[in-house]
Amino acid sequence: MSMVLLSSGFSASASTSTNAATATVESMNVSADWLNLAVKDTWMWAWPMINIYQRRLAFSHLPEAGLLGGTIPVGPPNALSMLDDYIKPDERQVACPNQDVVYGFAALALDKSPMVVQVPDFGSRFWVFQAVDLRTDSFASLGRQYGTSPGFYLLVGPDWKGTVPPGIKQVFRSTSNTSVLIPRIFQADTPEDKKAVKSLISGINLYPLANYTGKPQPRDWGALRQYPAEHKTEGETRWVTPENFWKLLPSVLNDARPLAGEEAQYAKAKQLLELYQSPRYRQLMDEATQTAERELTQPLLAFHLAGRPAGNYWTANINGAQFGFDFFTRTASARAFIFVNKPEETQYFVQDFDKNGTLLNGKSRYTLTFPAGQTPPVAGFWSLTVYNPQHFFVENRINRYALGTRNKDLHYNDDGSLTLYLQSDSPGKDRETNWLPTPQEGAFSLMIRAYGPEQDILQHRWQPPAVEPKP
Fold it and tell me: For residues 465 and 374, what is the distance between their CA atoms, to the nearest angstrom?
């Protein structure tokens, strides 16, 4: 069968095409093979954007920012919610959390208002406020590594043309109206530092430009509204489904403008949306979408598919939050560990295998030894985290989910090297400070985070050591 491309325009009302337009589509002679490939390609390309847009919609009914089940910050668009301690191990809203930082989260609707970000004085503490657009690409540089000074910063949408009031230090423009802001503030695992962080974060705030006064507006993040916990799922909340994909795609296309050179991808997506109005093609497209989820994105919940080889079977995610036209890595990252920072903010090394290329399994015991002076070279901090197959914490009796800079009692070997013990049972009382529990059986994965990476990491001169299976 020949392929016919549609040339009609697109608007947000495409889902309510007139009978005449539907009849025109019905008369088209579109190859089923082309349709199948075009649907799968569009699914892979738009998956991260649908993911972000659905997060904006998911909690739009909430009256104010709060904590869902006491574990995860949520709120309506343009409302920041902050934790005041490490994230809890049972959260399921965002895969691959870490217990090195105190998190905040806000889904931004910059078409409603520009948003003022209020930054307190963090002193020498490592911090970064991540702001990403619908593509999960960063559009702001806010953090210690940028020398960001305390004060007020403005986040605006692609079409904003207002006046910047006095006192705003810098304006960051997103490529889409729907965006996300995620503050991360390092916290050492000591009572003293937890108390210090609670005081510091009271200076963090986010509010519409109309509420800006030029003076700090403190917040008591320990007094957030508590929302009932949702049913706990095994894996991450399914933000993208075959059922919501074609419903949300028109809004996504209108929200995120094409990058230069991306026009053909948009044109194809718009053609598919018109075809979807036809019962003749809708069934084929629904089947192709179900197949795309099953065969393309579900298997991407694997760390080693989201980056480049970094030695010893580790994989490095080297273009996080600046994916551009690297659609595959963008979607693989969004599936495996969404909301990665820019490379100069954080480098991620992920691992599914031991030194022999065998998948890690809780039935075995492993060690990870950094030679003397060769822990991750960072200006901020580093950590190692264990994740289950769904990329969430492995719950354990000592409630430990990461080891690294935050741990002040790590024991170094006599030669200055550092050995971490990865196993389900205790390695012995004298080694428990260096023990990171793994599941009792089944697959698990590892992630090294290097916040504020130094040049040896940025220039790929440093690599993580091999994961050694114990006899």
Answer: 9
